Amino acid sequence: MAKNLPKNNKITSLDLPKWMDVQNLRIVLFVFGFILYANTLTHDFTQDDAIVIYDNMYTTQGIKGIPGILEFDTFHGFFKEAGKTNLVAGGRYRPFSLVVFALLFEIFGNNPFGFHLFTVLLFSLTCVVLFNILHRLFSKKFTSQIGLLIAFLSSMLFAAHPIHTEAVANIKGVDEIFALLGSLLTLGFILKYQENNKILYLLSACFIFFLALLSKENTVTFLGIIPLTIFVFYDKSIGSSVSKILPLLVSTLLFFVLRTKAIGWGFGNAPLELMNNPYLKLSGSQYVPFTIGEKLATIFFTLGYYIKLLVLPHPLTHDYYPRHIEMMNFGDISVLLSVILYLFLLVYSLKTLHTRRLVPFTILFYLMSLSIVSNLFFPIGTNMSERFLFMPSVGFCMLLGYGLYWLGSNYFKNTSKSINYKFTLLLTATVCSLYGIKTFTRNAVWKDNYTLFTTDVKTSANSAKLQNSVGGELIAKAGKTEDKNEKTRLLNEAIEHLNKAISIHPNYHNAFLLLGNANFLLEKYDEAIKQYNHCLEVNPGYKDAIKNLHLAYREAGKYYGEKKGDLKTSLIYLNKAYEMNPDDYDTNRLLGVANGVGGQTQKALEYFNKAVKINPSEEAFKNLSLAYYNAGDKVNGDKYAAMAASNQKTK
């Protein structure tokens, strides 16, 4: 088969040094990928790790939890209740990574080191597998050594690219790595089947493709990428190329059967909640969908921003929630440029695909793998995310690697027929160094939630979700400090972030809940009650808000009674607490005290008697005894005093 050389047809030789053989380059790639992410090994769990690891009731059971992981949707083990399947449009069924997490939990327990080590090793392995696939492919279009060089350049760029930090530094990102690794291995086995026609390769491809689908749904894009690869690199017809993926449809069907059993059919409608559907806008006090034009303009803006991040990955953030990405329209020049760019890429790649050259292949690889997370065809619950570029970035890195080779072959040749590979390697090393430095420093931000949130909020200042997350972390930190002044400072700072979140998303029930919590800890009970009631206005059945509102009423009653001496206000709040939860021991105890102080002896006895039934403790018996003495009933007073004394001896 003729090699696909540049038009001038001058590059006919490339003498790489002996050390640049396939095996050594694999080692270089593996070590390079590992070193880049080695500084994550001491990091804590972060971001969504709670959902899939340490707060997931199935993962934390280890091997015993695997049946539950396979039976239910991904969120079930975290929320521990039904009805959360479609919290994100279409639901999530990605059990394979959770099964792996369960196995890791069986070995390492709740220690994040083992999980981070596994993730970094998996990423390094993926870089090597990518290199193997690209070497196999490029050697069919170029001479063996040129193919080796371009494959190595592309794989090094992939390993170094900072856009991957979210997928690797965040343990939950393993699903992205598994999806790409499984897809590449599937491609590799299909290529071997294409060359050797051995059924074992085909069966292996089907099995691995199934596991990759169980990792993440974007694996399905390889049903298009695999025939594209065969068409371009093996000079097969379109029909012949497509026929190679027919057995993979069995794996795909089996995946969708399991997915449907766990979460139902379909990919769902986007909910009318801004944190799970960014294409909403306020109309009065209610959210309504964007117009078609507003939605498409916003989507194309994010698609253009993806390319910007691939070329210049700065600044990076883990949060692109509303309104970090604003509502856009087609009058915005950035939207128009993005539309023009993507139309050009699509038209150019399709128009030149018949040439079976590398450039249109890399573009189509990027477009096809990005399609499923673009929001153009399926709602994904957020505007965009850097981890969504993990698979599409392969196309970009192939194009960039080929571009660096092209520079050396056309402008920096040793002779008229030999590429200056040293210049090409130097240029690639420069790009990889810049990318690598950014990757290494960005990794440090993923140390823990506090570091991640407080760093990225400077970039994503208009993200309601991140402002809310920062508020939550500050409240958690305040709860752990013994310094009263520092605690007050942290809580007031949290309130600032939470107010910002609500200014962006006026119906953000979780922000109202956290505002209530912050004011509760500051002993500003009236304000806490106000915020909890706001929360329940937005989400009437919110259990945490109901529970916390009861506590706020109870503690407000105690505060006004004990510290303010305002018995009237104290009783108002305590009675509201009683209405919400009449079986709470402390509420009954405090009502007994308040009514006793107010001279309502019989009411005091009623509440103290109920408190004894709820919690027959020394304190409860003692309070009831004193109430009877105050009522002039010495017999019952002595009786419960004796019971209090007996209870103390039992202790």
What does it look like?
This protein is mostly helical and 651 residues long. The protein folds into 2 domains: 26-442, no CATH class; 463-581, Tetratricopeptide repeat domain (Serine Threonine Protein Phosphatase 5, Tetratricopeptide repeat), CATH 1.25.40. The protein is built from 29 helices and 4 strands. It has helices at 22-37, 49-54, 66-71, 76-79, 95-108, 112-141, 144-160, 165-169, 174-196, 199-215, 222-233, 238-243, 248-263, 292-311, 333-352, 358-371, 393-411, 421-445, 449-456, 464-480, 484-504, 509-521, 525-538, 543-562, 567-580, 585-597, 601-614, 618-630, 634-650, and strands spanning 280-283, 286-289, 413-415, 418-419. Strands 1-2 form a two-stranded antiparallel ribbon. The radius of gyration is 31 Å and the shape is elongated.
How would the blueprint of this fold be written?
Layout: H1 22-37, H2 49-54, H3 66-71, H4 76-79, H5 95-108, H6 112-141, H7 144-160, H8 165-169, H9 174-196, H10 199-215, H11 222-233, H12 238-243, H13 248-263, E1 280-283, E2 286-289, H14 292-311, H15 333-352, H16 358-371, H17 393-411, E3 413-415, E4 418-419, H18 421-445, H19 449-456, H20 464-480, H21 484-504, H22 509-521, H23 525-538, H24 543-562, H25 567-580, H26 585-597, H27 601-614, H28 618-630, H29 634-650
Helix pairs in contact: 1-6, 1-7, 5-6, 6-7, 6-9, 7-17, 7-18, 9-10, 10-13, 11-16, 14-15, 15-16, 16-17, 17-18, 19-20, 20-21, 20-22, 21-22, 22-23, 22-24, 23-24, 24-25, 24-26, 25-26, 26-27, 27-28, 28-29
